[in-house]
Amino acid sequence: MDTEGWAVNVPRGYRVGDWRVGKPIATGSWASVYLGVRDGEGATRAALKFLPTGTVTRRQLKYFVDMTQREIRLHSRLQHSRLIRLRETLVVDDTENPELDGACVLVMDLAERSLADLIRAGGAVPDAPRLITEICEGLAYMHAEGWVHGDLKPNNVLVMADGSVRLADFGLTTEIDGTHGYLPPMGSVDHVPPERWNEPVSERGHAVRVSADVWALGVTACQLLTGHLPFSAPTARARYVAAAEYAAGDRPLTLPVSLPEAWRSWVSECLTPDARLRPSAARQLYRARVLAGTVEVSPRRTGTRTAGAIAGALLVLAGVSGAGMVDSSVADPYGRWLRSDSDIPPEYRALIVEAGTMCDDPGLSPALIAGILKAESNFDAGLSDVAKNEYGLARWTPSVLQYYLPTERRGVILTPPLSPEDTIPAVGRYMCVRLPLLAGVPGDPGLLGAAAFRSSDDVIRKENGIPERFRPFVERVRKYRAQYEP
């Protein structure tokens, strides 16, 4: 393969660290990837990603250093089976070769190809539903950990030797600070949401939210399912204009006719014009698993309701008047979800039902939420454990609670005491984000979620179950959940 014009031109046989450079694999505008071979017994192969230093301007170098640091920082903090693994980081020391001297080399697991290679073959990609599900797994994990990918597209999703996929190319990732992170004004026009270009550019760059990744997820899924982009036009610029007109309400969304009907609403929701209304990656993960046939829809519920819809329906059922009086002749409006004769304080029942019906993830139920609250605080809204920095009904740490508040308040660190109106629904949001990440771990999904709430989903995945030290807490949740189920 001719590498003239590549971001970094490295000759075959060149040595860096213990690695010998082999055939060229791919290049982008700011990095080039080569096969790396480490000789010895059972020769090891890897991907060597070279990032330039000597052939760029001072301004470009600043961008490249920033993107390299972003990538290394993410790899140092996040590990997941759906993220490409960084084995080591090297720096080229070769003063006789100024074009390579000082270049950073990321040694990563070797992939077979990218999703872009599969899409170029034309038509729907075989096994597209599974591939979409695996992309969602990686994306939901990143979002749950407080990161935005920032450059999700088929070129940046790698296919491994076993056919599974890994998210890669994290040079435009950013950590979320409150509700958003910041990125330089870069990105693939076909996969960047229209609102991105309307964001003012500050010293830190464009503000970017997880909803931007969800838009890119919808575009990528459409490509996998049909072989086509969702906005049809001969050039990237024309496609951007079409997307912008759609986002402004000036034209309808016309998806490819070959898009399977079952996936049409899934893709459409990812491409919702209002970024605030796009579903989470965790929510799309669950729906993708349903469409791919790997999980069954819970028979308890037929869909997701907003908090307002649930509250309104419950008030109607309860016969609440404007003065707040309840018609005692009306049956318990929460009896469908919670035992009427339990010790759950009446003033919390509506909030518990709201939290327990926030999504359709297996294991989530109002009885589980009530069991967690009972085990955490014995329903004590005034709980204050200053030594552990835990407060309220669910023993939230305020700096963690900020990520599970409603969208319009996300990023606000509350000052204790913490109200039930904030803390109870937040448990439901936590479960809707974390339960999909625990799929495949053996055990009761709800109890796995309870263990994750007390520790983290990462701990549960690493242990492949509930660690011994958390079993007493989980056993209490199990007991209380059984008591509260109708």
Automatic annotation (TrEMBL):
It is an enzyme of class 2 (transferase). SUPFAM superfamilies: Lysozyme-like, Protein kinase-like (PK-like). PROSITE patterns: PROTEIN_KINASE_DOM (PS50011). It catalyses: L-seryl-[protein] + ATP = O-phospho-L-seryl-[protein] + ADP + H(+); L-threonyl-[protein] + ATP = O-phospho-L-threonyl-[protein] + ADP + H(+). Keywords: ATP-binding, Kinase, Nucleotide-binding, Serine/threonine-protein kinase, Transferase. The keyword ATP-binding applies. Residues 19-290 form the Protein kinase domain. The lineage of its organism: Bacteria, Bacillati, Actinomycetota, Actinomycetes, Streptosporangiales. InterPro entries: Kinase-like_dom_sf, Lysozyme-like_dom_sf, Prot_kinase_dom, Ser_Thr_kinase. It holds the Pfam family Pkinase. Its EC number is 2.7.11.1. This is non-specific serine/threonine protein kinase. One of its GO terms (molecular function) is kinase activity.
